[in-house]
Each structure stands twice: as structure tokens, then as C-alpha cells.
What we know:
By secondary structure, the protein is mainly α. It is built from 19 helices and ten strands. The strands form five sheets. It has a two-stranded antiparallel sheet with strand order 1-2. Strands 3-4 form a two-stranded antiparallel sheet. Strand 8 and strand 9 form a beta hairpin. Helix 7 (190-210) runs antiparallel to helix 11 and helix 11 packs antiparallel against helix 12 (321-344).
Amino acid sequence: xxxxxxxxxxxxxxxxxxxxxxxxxxxxxxxxxxxxxxxxxxxxxxxxxxxxxxxxxxxxxxxxxxxxxxxxxxxxxxxxxxxxxxxxxxxxxxxxxxxxxxxxxxxxxxxxxxxxxxxxxxxxxxxxxxxxxxxxxxxxxxxxxxxxxxxxxxxxxxxxxxxxxxxxxxxxxxxxxxxxxxxxxxxxxxxxxxxxxxxxxxxxxxxxxxxxxxxxxxxxxxxxxxxxxxxxxxxxxxxxxxxxxxxxxxxxxxxxxxxxxxxxxxxxxxxxxxxxxxxxxxxxxxxxxxxxxxxxxxxxxxxxxxxxxxxxxxxxxxxxxxxxxxxxxxxxxxxxxxxxxxxxxxxxxxxxxxxxxxxxxxxxxxxxxxxxxxxxxxxxxxxxxxxxxxxxxxxxxxxxxxxxxxxxxxxxxxxxxxxxxxxxxxxxxxxxxxxxxxxxxxxxxxxxxxxxxxxxx
Length: 457
């Protein structure tokens, strides 16, 4: 491998000749062989903020237009994914993300030198002008998190809601037995049951959306400790205007930069909403696989698509794999919630130094939920079909239908009938007639399963 010599304040470093990064990136690359790479979403978020910062510096007359123009060009290349191979650093580095900030600064400077044929940009003095790693990394977290939620997660949840809405309407009068405590309960319709799943998704989506305003408060302009040292007056305000122009989002400059640098409570709240969505996803996926259990010896009230063989030894076995994938995702998100919460609690004085791991966990949760919801909707929920014969059979033989008798003969007599029917394996109708509690005509008049659900015939 061919190398070139790069210098920083600590001396010289050998850097691969075909890479744009500099000495500080190389030091981190050699010193930290821990875990996976920094999420590409963070790198692309840095490209947005470096572009916005350069534009603000140019407008405020502290960066020449010709220098700013090179920053703009390289940032566009980063966003296009052309330079992804030039960002090798891992998540488990310095807790401020300084080395990733410098990785971006050095790559922009290095690529600009390649384009210009000479060193036209200094990583610190030009690309990092009016900035600090302490305000750029949390800003990159904000940008990446908002993009992931608005561009990936929200559309995935909405798609699931639409599919559930179709199922709800299709099966609103399809009667089935209800279940509480994993025991038989009074009847409802499958459409009503699905409406509960849909409402869970809708409520979770609103909870996630409510956290976005706090995530959109960016730290840029606070520089090292929140005072804005070395940033010209008006930089924060001008930078966020530029950022919104570039991203099409509605970020705001954080009103208190000391809070923006040291506290990550917005991520705790937002990830809490993600955990709520994961809990609802777990519940819905479990309901689906229970209802589809069988095909002969389980509930078997619904069928789901058969996507792949389920066993290497049992011929013809098909498993509810999409629901299993979804429930594993839910478990991972719940674990990540602990990571985010503990990391957010570790701010000391003017800076939180657990930001990279928090960013990785947060983005992983958003991406996993978006991908899981998309997969579950496409490969499972969309293909749900009802076994009406099985549903009707289970609903009609449920002893909890006796609840409809309460207002006619009282709770205790209804319980007596239910126990007799269960003991003798007879119907409620037969048991009550035997006990001379009612006639067959009265039973037929009092017990109407669809009326019990509250759905009009």
C-alpha cells in the first residue's frame, strides 16, 4: 500500500495515499478497533451541517466564497454516497464524537485539494470554522434522527395503519370469541380486534411525532461549552436557516446551548416513544401468531402467508417467521432504550460524552422499527385471511356467552349454567333448558352474538 505523510499538532502520520482523511482520522483509526463503524446517517448529517455552516460563514464574511464553494461541492459528494469509503471510524471512540467531526473536516479538505490541485482548505481553520465537535456532533445527531423518523419510520407506520384499516372494515361483522388472561371471554368481531391494533399504531405514531420538536433544536453555534466562543454574531441563526433550506426540514437553533451540549433528554423522551411503538409491535405480532397457530392443533382462526419452509426435519411445516422477526426487533429496541437512558444520564458539566453510542442505538431502533413494520405489513399482515368456520365455531361454543344472560336471570344462575355446560360438554342453550332457567325461544331471543359485540346487524 502506498502512503503519504500528513501532519497534525502531535506530529506526522502515514495515511493511505488513496484516502482523503488526514492525521487525526488516522490516529483514531489505528487506536480504536472497537465495534462497528459510525452510522452513515451521521456522516451524511455532517455534510448537511458543514454545508450550512460554510454558507453562514460566507454570508457573515468570515470565510471567502471560493473556500466555501469547495465545501459545498464536497458535501454534495458525501450526500451522494461517493465518499463513504473515506469514513472508517468506529462508534466506540471519544464520547464527544470529535474524531468523526475531524474525519469529516479532513475528508472535505482532502477532497477539495484533489479538486483544486492544491491545499485550498484547512480542516480546522476553514471547514470547522465557527464550530466545535461539541456542537457539531449533537447537531448531526439531531439531523440524522429527524431524517430517520420522518423519512423512514413515519411512512412505515402509516402504511401499516392503512392495511389494518382495510382489514378492520373487511371483517367488522365477522364474529369471534374474545380472550382475556388467555381464557375465553365474550365475543367481539375480528374487525374490532384489528381496530385495536390500528389504534395502537396510531397512538404510538402520535407519541413519536410529539417528540420531534425537541429533537429539532440544534446545538450548532454553542461551540465548545455553549458560549459560542469563536463563532461570529448571528452564526447560529444563519446556519439553521441554511440547514432548513438544504434539508427541507424545520430545525431551530436551541434557545439554550448549555442545555443542548450537556443534556440529551430529548433522546430519552423520543426513544421512550420508540419503545412504546416496539411494545405495540410486540403485542400485535404475538396476537397474529397466536391466532394463526396450528394449522390443525392450534387456534387456527386466521391464516397468514406461507413464505418459506419452517423446519429442516418436519416436512410441510410453516412458521410465523415475520412475527418472530418483529418480536426480536421489539426486544432489541427495548434494550436500546436502556442504552439511550443510561448514556443520557452521563453528562458531566458542559458536555455529554456518550453521544456516539447513543446515536448508534437511537438510529438502530428507528431503522429496525421502520424495516420491521414494512416487512410485517408486506409479507404478513397484508395477506391475513380469516377462517370464518373456525371463528364461528369457537365463538358459539364459548361459555362466556353466558354473560348475555346476566340481565335476564342474574349472574349466579348464569354461572350455574356455564359450569353445567362445561361439566357435561353441552351447549349453554341445552344446559339452561335442562335447569329450567329459560326456554329455547327465550335463549335465542336473549343471546345474539353480533348484538353482543355492539356492531349493528
